[in-house]
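Team,

Forwarding the record for the chain on the shared tracking sheet. I've put the sequence and predicted structure together so nobody has to dig through attachments.
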Amino acid sequence: MGVFDQTVFDLDYSMIEMRILGEIGRHPSITANMLTKYLNIKKSYLSRKLSKLEREQYVFKEKNPEDSRSMCLYLTESGQKLNEYVEEQSDRKVIELLDPLGKEDFEALVVAMATVEKVLYKVVPNELEVDEEQE
């Protein structure tokens, strides 16, 4: 998958693995089916990534109380710590990257990003809850 397979912050995990971890952290009890739709990845690919994260005890599954055919995904305590570390490092990297910008350039960037978000929202839902309703 190219860019998805690059490692994050010199950890032994790919960007997609950290994205999966982050989405589970933001949406405890999310199902694998919802994750595949939201991340637009194949079920078999997600299954391999989840197996690795489970084996390394960052993620665990429980039966979905609303549908016994599916499993809800959760982060373990170790998974929460790893996710927090990656989030903190990401925030630090963004601050480091934007620090040299002057006030005018920073404000222009914020306006441009808001425009991009507004346009993309028309074609790509930005919240996982939208997909949950279609579940």
